[in-house]
Specification:
heterodimer; A: about 575 residues; alpha+beta; Serine Threonine Protein Phosphatase 5, Tetratricopeptide repeat; 2 domains; 4-stranded antiparallel β-sheet; two-stranded antiparallel ribbon; about 55% helix; B: about 1100 residues; mainly beta; Immunoglobulin-like; Ferric Hydroxamate Uptake Protein, Chain A, domain 1; 22-stranded antiparallel β-barrel; 5-stranded mixed β-sheet
């Protein structure tokens, strides 16, 4: 029996060397696990940048373009257009379309939520991570999350609202939608609460436009207030941005002196279009800065492509170097109707008419555009040729907010504020608001006209205040048209039209604009569909509805499915 | 003898100092002596010194004069003298010199040894008649001499309830084995393979997952059984119910196949050599089109699409246009399939040496197989070696070492047949000169060839020039020590400690090289001079400690035994793959600098431990009870459900032991009867490691900075999938046990089913959870087997004539009892309007494998409808809407309405003459998903097999059959061969196709990339019942008297035929098609199983 005892002893000792639990705990070899992560501030930074990377991923950025531009009056089908794109262009949107999948935005949201969840504990443990740095990171994370939701609610109206990260399978993933207004209010209060911690600038120059600054958050807030209808808040947020921009302008002026390429237009600092090259006066400096080089003074927030990530969609959608056009091209309305000024350089910066009906998109496709001004100003109506152009490197940044957008948002708020006062207030009061609004629009417009070195333009070449101040509607139209001219192909137009329709409570303005896109056979059906304001939004992807019965399909699209099933 | 007395005596004798007198011996003294018998001194007698534990500590052999001497180790020991045929002398050591006379034993008394047959599958030596679980054992002697490479080939149809289906007939192809149905929706459902008590760990990554030439066929799995030479196998036991598999816990949930290898045994050293020659050839397949028929078919297919010739005119390859430079290359009648077939040869040599004595048993074997396939470009070499060595240190201690090694090198070419079937028959194999004479250089279709035509690479050139090898080396050393701590005999209380350590090393390597010669785009092709390499290295260490306790009970009515076992396993794996293309010719290495190198590495590790307790109790051997419980700890789960405990209880009642049964037994009709009942739970772990960790991966960089993102949702609530099984079995012995009958009825209910890829709303930031425990599933069925041992014996020509045989059949049904609607919907996909797809519809509480599709009614004769038949143009059999009575529905203007497909969708189509007629079940004039009906079940009503063995003297004849009855198969390969949708070569049956208005046929018109002429319909659903004559084997051994004369121990010859005949109505290559869980049985015949003839000779020295 002694033998048995000693034997059992040996076995037990053998066992106790490593306890069962330790023996059976194996960390994966190919990944980092939560247990070893979130230890210092660089971990926070890595995941925070991962959230930006999610926005930058092809899926997300492509949808910013598709959702914001495709249904508008700016674009029609180009060459080699896939069926899914064509369907959206023709407003025949199916809930099975790839472009109504929204997972990529929630990917960014989840990453931002993860940062917000773990960052405070990192700050407690890492002495090098200050409270200020934590708050700045939180501000960025909230801004990323808000931007993602901002796109989602403008595209779908009501969407599931998640503010906690998905870490564990114990979480309830099956949730319903939160109404548009609730989400919007929540986004605004989140941003207002955190924006004071957001940095004004980052240590590296590139980060100033690629990460959220206080100015970028203010711009996003202005946009949100504009949808909400709080005109004063729009005006205030825009004023905050302008204040910051003027500061930056002064810094630049001090540093660069006479070589500073920023001018004040009606008191607003914008990049100058005209510049002197070795062979004389050239126009196109601002274009090259903003759409070519990127990281420009005017940019408030953009997704940076080029180093590492190459832009995955501009080439396909707008066209590639040496090729004629992409899936999309400019519509007749975009190429003709709105160009009312003789010297508006933006025409060439948006559209190139190669043949009579092929209006290739220029914006983003060309890295730089130069127009020779030595023999006189170029005119929209006469010449449709580039004096000089350099082909694009196909890695343009995707701009989300820039300063001229902010100026026009402020103008829009001023007009609408005045419109509300219409009939009540004194006409002088209204007039002063119109004056401010016009000054803002005119600033953007004047920059676009550039200046001809051979001399200035005549007064008739500029916008005429008296022509628009006749009614609030005319003023509103001016702002919207100027927005269209300035921000064409930047994923803004459909949202502008949606906002206007929601404000009016009907889609008659929108329909008037997009009507020409449709041929007579389909136009009636689309018009009837468009009378429903829900038609401004996209359907929820079919598989999402299928697996989650708490999700409600947009009523405009429910009917379609019902008919299909009844067949 | 106490010490005092001993030393006193020693003193006295030292003084006397006389030889032969009592003497005080001490260690180191020389003991010597002489041994004689009645006739004088004896030579070669064994003299040994043995200690208290009967270990030999010193040893000597007598010389020619009978003298021996050795150095004493311990004076307390005994001296033992043995010689064959003489009585053993065993005396204490009392002196230094001995004179011993040996006594002749005379005639040896007859010794009767009674040993009960025992079953050791539970780790306990349980007498077979007390076994309460469901186990079927087969001795490999039954299959001796068969021309098989892997053992599953022999088992097909032999084990009741084990359904074996071969994935293809390529060399080394794996078989799918399902025991008692599939009880899981995730992972592999093949049974666990256990060799000599160790899990046969073959890396699950061991598959050719390399995309060599975009052939999906290359993902074929390699058989893990390839690493075990059938010649080394002694017996195979298949553990079926939970009570039997409980000892393997979570690993045994799909059943266990326990393989016992041969070991040495006491006796003369035996040398055995066997040689087998094996010839294989491919069965006759579909008859395919000739070149002329093919070009005609293509012209029609291109014409019918738009009813004009513009497309055809552009494709000069089918025009026989002599002005084209490559005209000679496109004017042939090549039978590609017969070009790639060949007569395959396998030769195998096996040598084994076995023997043993008092101290040790051993068996050493080595085998070498070299095999060429029945399709060109296939070659496999295998070298196997196995050493089994048992050393008896003493009565109490036994040391066992096993060593096995297998090396295989397989040159693969799995796609040759399927490529050959697609190849254009008008194409030349070799470049031809102006006169049409082949030059001997392979013709590869140029890139300039019309893009509509098939672009497959010449399969002959491919077989010659593409190199694709997979090699694997498997080494498994094992060391075991068995220590009897208490009694040694049956009538003593026994306690045995058994410790073993097992190492497993598997290295596998896949290599391929595809020269630019085979790349259509020449040097710019990404397949040009493409070299890929991948390797897997896997090592594992396992230790097992077990204690077996068998008390000797005074009351003989009771018997009890118990065992506790602790096991620990750890394994590490590393994989690496690399690929380069456009490497300079001649450098077949991935180390060559190249513009697009492709590299990836991976590492994995896993650990597990388990504690098993098992006990057996029997009363009078009449009532037996077993209990087993195993706790499994697994690294695949988090703390919460890391340990799973799986119990099983079973009992057996030997009814025939009851007194009242005596009468029956004496009648000789029913001589044995027993009933067994078992219950148990087994578990199943998910197929991935580290799922319960929240993982962070590195993502794309932002602002040139690396980013990190959370890449999964951790599975913290994941649990073991559990399968609860019941088994009720009856065993009968009939006609004095000449007939043995077993009947088993079972149910297996799987709960907490592991479903992978569970979709969740993407608002979570993720699309799915890796696993979710949801739903339950039930397998139920019965098994019947009847074994007849020498059912008929007679004397013919003075020789013994015997007939034995056995028959077994089984049935299994599988259904989902409950499942989350989302998961169910995921399995039930929407109708996709595409040709060739069948709806697989899984309904709760309905059996799996139902086939749904359209009803095929033939071909529309005419396009336009007319109430009366106008010859040539219009007629009644046209695509128009009809009501229930078959009357044509007319509109107000008296016009018929056209028949539509998928009206109102983007797939809309109007049927025309020559198109397939599908039954419009609901008479709505629209063929859509509402016209889909039930067409049959993929599951057989019955499957099984039988064998007949006859022997006449030393000649024996062995036949094995297997069958399935009552199942339907979707003949996917016929569908491909008759679809006329693409430009691949097709079955000659399409010569019966509809060509002009008015043709009456059941074969629709040819339509290139258009139409809906091969929708999933009953046209391709065929009866899959078959009876296969698996093999017939003749074995003859030479008369031992003759062999002795020439100095050999024995010589036997065998001749057999494999895959002799198949009786079936099925028109495909092979009716052996399995249906996975939730899908229909679809025959996508790759390389069909070949037919074989084997000749073998085995010689014993």
């Amino acid at each position: 029996m002694k033998k048995i005892k000693s034997l059992i002893c040996i076995i037990l000792v053998g066992l106790s060397v490593s306890s069962c639990k330790d023996f059976l705990t194996l960390m994966p070899l190919n990944d980092i696990v939560l247990e070893n992560f979130w230890t210092d501030m660089s971990d926070v930074e890595s995941v925070l940048l991962g959230s930006y990377a999610a926005l930058e991923s092809g899926d997300c950025a492509k949808r910013m373009l598709v959702w914001g531009e495709l249904r508008s009056d700016n674009v029609i089908a180009g060459s080699g257009t896939p069926e899914a794109i064509e369907q959206i262009l023709e407003d025949d949107i199916l809930s099975t379309s790839d472009y109504v999948k929204y997972k990529c935005f929630y990917d960014a949201i989840n990453r931002a939520n993860t940062v917000l969840h773990f960052a405070p504990s990192v700050q407690e443990n890492d002495p090098n991570y200050s409270f200020g740095e934590l708050k700045a990171n939180e501000a960025e994370a909230i801004a990323i999350r808000s931007l993602a939701y901002w796109y989602l609610i403008r595209a779908y109206k009501d969407v599931p609202y998640v503010t906690e990260p998905s870490i564990d399978d114990t979480k309830d993933f099956f949730i319903g939608q939160t109404p548009f207004d609730t989400i919007l209010n929540s986004l605004i209060s989140d941003l207002e609460g955190i924006k004071m911690y957001a940095p004004n600038k980052y240590p590296t120059e590139l980060a100033n436009t690629a990460r959220f600054t206080k100015a970028a958050i203010n711009a996003m807030l202005a946009d949100m207030y504009l949808w909400k209808g709080e005109w004063d808040s729009v005006i205030n947020r825009c004023a905050d941005v302008t204040k910051r921009k003027i500061e930056e302008y002064k810094e630049d002026l001090e540093k660069e002196g006479t070589s500073c390429m920023i001018d004040l237009y009606n008191g607003y600092p914008l990049i100058r279009e005209m510049f002197q090259s070795a062979s004389g006066a050239r126009m196109g400096y601002a274009y090259t800065e903003i759409f070519g080089s990127g990281n420009a003074f005017e940019i408030l927030f953009e997704l940076p492509y080029g180093s590492g990530a190459s832009n995955p969609f501009i080439g396909d959608f707008y066209g590639k170097k040496e090729l004629n056009g992409g899936y999309l091209k400019g519509s007749k309305m975009a190429s003709k109707d709105i160009w009312i000024q003789k010297y508006d350089g933006r025409y060439y910066q948006n559209i190139r008419s190669a043949k009579s009906d092929d209006d290739y998109i220029v914006k983003y496709v060309y890295e730089s555009l130069e127009f020779d001004l030595t023999s006189g100003a170029i005119e929209v109506t006469n010449q449709r040729k580039f004096k000089n152009s350099v082909r694009n490197n196909s890695e343009p940044n995707w701009i989300i907010y820039r300063y001229s957008d902010v100026l026009l948002m402020a103008a829009e708020a001023q007009v609408l504020k005045a419109k509300e006062l219409y009939g009540e207030a004194a006409s002088t009061q209204r007039d002063s608001m119109f004056q401010i609004a016009f000054k803002l629009v005119d600033a953007v417009n004047r920059r676009a006209l550039g200046q001809y070195s051979g001399g200035g333009y005549s007064a008739a070449d500029y916008l005429d205040y008296n022509k628009y101040a006749v009614s609030p509607d005319a003023m509103e139209e001016l702002v919207l048209d100027e927005r269209r001219r300035e921000l064409m192909f930047e994923g803004k137009r459909w949202f502008d039209l949606s906002r206007k329709s929601l404000r009016d409570g009907n889609t008659s303005y929108l329909w008037k604009k997009i009507e020409k896109k449709f041929d007579s056979s389909s136009s009636n059906a689309v018009r009837i569909k468009m009378t429903d304001l829900n038609a401004l939004f996209f359907p929820i992807y079919k598989d999402e509805i299928k697996i989650n019965d708490k999700l409600k399909q947009n009523p405009v699209y429910v009917e379609d499915e019902f008919i299909k099933k009844a067949e | 003898m106490n010490n005092k007395l001993f030393s006193r005596a020693a003193f006295a004798l030292a003084v006397a100092s006389l030889p032969g007198l009592l003497y005080a011996q001490k260690a180191g003294d020389i003991i010597s002596g002489v041994i004689e018998d009645n006739e004088g001194p004896m030579m070669m007698v064994n003299v040994t010194e043995r200690d208290a534990a009967d270990r030999i500590v010193a040893h000597a052999i007598t010389d020619i004069e009978g003298n021996f001497s050795f150095r004493l180790v311990n004076p307390k020991d005994r001296i033992q003298i043995t010689y064959v045929g003489y009585e053993t002398v065993d005396i204490p050591i009392t002196k230094l010199y001995y004179e011993i006379k040996m006594k002749d034993q005379g005639e040896l008394p007859t010794v009767e040894i009674t040993a009960e047959r025992v079953q050791e599958t539970s780790g306990l030596p349980i007498p077979l008649r007390e076994a309460s679980n469901s186990v079927q054992t087969i001795n490999m002697e039954e299959f001796e001499g068969l021309g098989i490479t892997t053992v599953d080939e022999a088992l097909q149809g032999r084990i009741t309830g084990l359904d074996i289906v071969f994935d293809s007939g390529n060399l080394g192809a794996r078989s799918t084995m399902h025991l008692r149905g599939v009880a899981t929706l995730t992972g592999d459902a093949n049974p666990l393979i256990v060799v000599d008590g160790n899990i046969w760990q073959v890396d699950s990554n061991l598959e050719n997952n390399f995309d060599f030439t975009n052939n999906s066929n290359d993902t074929e799995k390699v058989s893990e059984l390839l690493n075990i030479n059938p010649e080394d196998i002694a017996s195979i036991s298949v553990l079926k119910d939970a009570a039997a598999t409980a000892i393997w816990g979570a690993r045994g949930t799909n059943g266990v196949m326990e393989i016992k290898t041969k070991r040495g045994s006491r006796g003369k050293t035996r040398v055995n050599y066997s040689y087998r020659f094996n010839g294989t050839w491919q069965p006759e397949g579909y008859q395919l089109l000739t070149g002329d028929e093919y070009t005609m078919f293509l012209k029609e297919a291109f014409f019918n699409e738009k009813l004009n010739d513009t497309k055809t005119d552009k494709i000069w390859e089918i025009q026989y246009d002599e002005s084209k430079p490559l005209y000679e290359m496109y004017n042939n009648n090549t039978d590609w399939v017969s070009e790639v077939k060949k007569f395959g040869i396998q030769q195998s040599h096996n040598v084994s040496v076995s023997g043993g004595g008092d101290k040790a048993n051993f068996r050493i074997s080595a085998g070498f197989d070299t095999q060429t396939g029945s399709v060109i470009g296939q070659k496999m070499n295998r070298f196997t070696s196995r050493v089994a060595f048992d050393y008896f240190v003493s009565d109490r201690i036994k040391v066992v070492t096993n060593f096995s090694m297998t090396y295989t090198k397989n040159k693969q070419n799995s796609a040759a047949i399927s490529t050959a079937m697609k190849m254009m028959p008008n194409l030349a194999i070799y470049y031809e000169d102006r006169q049409g004479n082949p030059t001997g250089d392979y013709f590869i279709v140029p890139t300039t060839q019309s893009q509509e035509l098939p672009t497959d690479i010449n399969p002959l050139a491919d077989a010659d020039f593409r190199k694709q090898y997979s090699t694997s080396l498997n080494v498994n050393p094992e060391f075991q020590i068995v220590y009897n701590l208490l009694g040694l005999e049956n009538d003593q209380t026994r306690l045995t400690y058994d410790a073993r350590i097992t190492f497993g090393v598997t290295n596998s390597n896949n290599e391929s090289y595809s020269p630019s010669l085979l790349a259509r785009n020449g040097w710019s092709d990404s397949n040009a001079n493409k070299k890929t390499e991948s390797s897997n290295k896997n090592s594992s260490i396992g230790t097992t400690h077990s204690l077996t306790f068998i008390p000797h009970l005074k009351n003989k009515n009771h018997s009890f035994m118990a065992m506790v076992r602790y096991q620990l396993n750890t394994s590490n794996g590393k994989s690496q793959s690399s690929g380069v293309n456009k490497v300079p010719g001649g450098f077949e290495s991935t180390a060559v600098p190249s513009n697009n190198p492709d590299m990836s590495t991976g590492a994995s590790r896993s650990r597990s431990m388990n504690v098993t307790f098992t006990a057996h109790y029997s009363y009078k051997s009449k009532y037996s009870f077993d209990f087993t419980s195993r706790s499994d700890g697994n690294t695949r789960f988090g703390d919460a459900s890391r340990w799973g405990t799986f119990p099983a209880i079973s009992g057996r009642w030997n009814v025939s032991d009851e007194k009242w049964f005596d009468g029956l037994r004496q009648s000789g009709l029913l001589t044995m009867m027993a009933t067994r009942l078992s219950w148990g739970i087994t578990g199943n772990a998910p197929g991935g490691d580290g799922l319960f960790y929240s993982k962070y991966s590195s993502g794309s960089s932002y602002l040139s900075t690396a980013t990190i993102y959370p890449s999964n949702i951790r599975m913290s609530t994941m649990q073991w999938e559990e399968t609860e099984s019941w088994n009720l079995g009856f065993d009968f012995g009939l006609f004095k046990d000449k007939l043995n009958m077993n009947v088993d009825i079972y149910t297996r209910t799987t709960t907490k089913m592991l479903n992978n890829g569970y979709s969740i709303p993407s608002s979570s930031g993720f699309e799915s959870l890796s696993y979710v425990n949801d739903g339950s599933m039930k397998n139920e069925g019965w098994e019947f087997s009847l074994a007849a041992n020498r059912i008929y014996s007679a004397k013919i020509w003075g020789k013994d004539f015997n007939i034995s045989g056995n028959i077994s059949f089984a049935d299994n049904t599988n259904q989902i009892l409950e499942l989350n609607p989302t998961l169910l919907e995921k399995m039930n996909k929407d109708f996709d309007y595409n040709n060739g797809s069948y709806l697989s519809y899984v309904a709760l509480k309905n059996s799996f494998g139902s086939i749904y599709g359209f009803k095929y009614l033939g071909v529309y004769q005419y396009t336009e409808y007319s109430p009366v038949e106008v010859p040539g143009v219009k007629g009644p059999n046209a695509p128009v809407v009809r009501d229930e009575n078959g009357e044509v529905i007319l509109n107000q203007k008296g016009k018929s309405k056209p028949m539509k497909f998928a009206w109102g969708t983007t797939h809309e189509l109007t049927f025309k003459g020559g198109d397939a007629i599908y039954e419009d079940i609901n008479h709505d004039g629209n063929i859509n998903e509402l016209d889909i009906v039930y067409l049959g079940s993929s599951l057989p009503k019955l499957n099984g097999g039988f064998s007949i063995r006859m022997s006449l003297g030393r000649l024996s004849w062995n036949n094995q059959f297997n069958f399935r009855w009552g199942n339907k198969i979707v003949n996917g390969s016929r569908m491909d061969a008759e679809c006329m949708y693409n430009t691949n070569n097709t079955s000659a049956a399409i010569n019966w196709r509809w060509r002009v208005e008015g043709d009456e046929t059941i074969m629709p018109r040819a339509l290139y990339q258009a139409g809906r002429n091969y929708l999933g319909s009953d046209r391709y659903v065929e009866d899959g019942s078959f009876l296969r004559w698996n093999f017939t084997a003749l074995n003859y051994s030479l008369d031992p008297k003759i062999t002795k004369k020439i100095g050999l121990g024995g010589v036997s010859f065998n001749l057999n035929l494999n895959n002799v005949l198949v009786w079936t109505k099925y028109t495909g290559m092979d009716p052996e098609v399995s249906a996975g869980a939730g899908s229909v049985a679809m025959d996508r015949a790759q390389t069909p199983r070949s037919k074989q003839v084997t000749f073998g000779v085995s010689v014993q020295f």
